[in-house]
């Protein structure tokens, strides 16, 4: 089992959700986050004063999948979230040691 963690632009969330649904991914967790990478934020003018916005709004999508779906999941997220512009985001794949469904006590891949 792996946890695929993707940080994407907020307006791409619906496309990513649809792409994951098409490949059979049944659930995900979505969190609104702020951050920056190479783009280092940008400057804005508010009421005549210029200030730097360091942390840009992003969305983090967490998807737990079995080993056989990892490649398809990464590819689906990558193709759905890509704009070709700086700040498109990152995808991380992290091993999951154990998963337990609280309601039924199912463990392992059956729990995801």
List keywords for this structure.
112 residues, P-II family nitrogen regulator, 37% strand, alpha+beta, Alpha-Beta Plaits, single chain, elongated, 20% helix
Short recap of the structure:
This protein is α+β, with helices and mostly antiparallel strands. Helices cover 20% and strands 37% of the residues.
Give a verbal description of the structure.
This protein has 2 helices and 6 strands, in the order βαββββαβ. The chain has helices spanning about 15-20, 70-80, and strands at about 1-10, 30-35, 40-45, 50-55, 55-65, 90-95. Strand 3 (about 40-45) and strand 4 form a beta hairpin. With about 110 residues, the chain is an alpha+beta fold.
Strand residue content: 35-45%
Supply the CATH architecture: 2-Layer Sandwich
Secondary structure category: alpha+beta
Number of strands: 6
Topology as a string of helices (H) and strands (E): EHEEEEHE
> If you average the pLDDT, what whole number results?
91
Q: Which strand order spans the largest sheet, edge to edge or round the barrel?
A: 2-5-1-6
Q: State the shape.
A: elongated
CATH topology: Alpha-Beta Plaits
Low-confidence stretches: none
Protein name: P-II family nitrogen regulator
Modified residues (O-UMP-tyrosine): 51
Subunit structure: Homotrimer.
Organism: Oceanipulchritudo coccoides
């Amino acid at each position: 089992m792996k946890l695929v963690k993707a940080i994407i632009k907020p307006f791409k969330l619906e496309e990513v959700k649809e792409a994951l649904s098409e490949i059979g991914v049944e659930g995900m967790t979505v969190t609104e986050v702020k951050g920056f990478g190479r783009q280092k934020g940008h400057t804005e003018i508010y009421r005549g004063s210029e200030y730097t916005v360091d942390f840009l709004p992003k969305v983090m999508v967490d998807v737990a999948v079995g080993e056989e779906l990892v490649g398809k999941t990464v590819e689906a997220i990558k193709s759905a979230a890509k704009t070709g512009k700086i700040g498109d985001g990152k995808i991380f794949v992290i091993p999951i040691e154990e998963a337990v469904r609280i309601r039924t006590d199912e463990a392992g891949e059956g729990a995801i």
